[in-house]
Amino acid sequence: MRPYLLAENNWKTIKDASFDVVVLPWGACEAHNYHLPYGTDIIEAEEIAAEAARLAWEQGAKITVLPAIPFGVNTGQHDVLLDMNMNPSTQFVVLRDVIETLNRQGIYKLIILNSHGGNDFKTMIRELGLKYPNMFLCSCDWFRSIDQKEFFVNKDDHAGEMETSLMMYLRPHLVRPLSEAGDGKAKKFRFKAIQEGWAWAERKWMQVTQDTGVGDPRQASAEKGEKYYRAVTQKVAQFFVEVAKTNKTDFYV
Ligand SMILES: [Zn+2]
Question: Is the pTM here over 0.90, yes or no?
Answer without folding.
Answer: yes
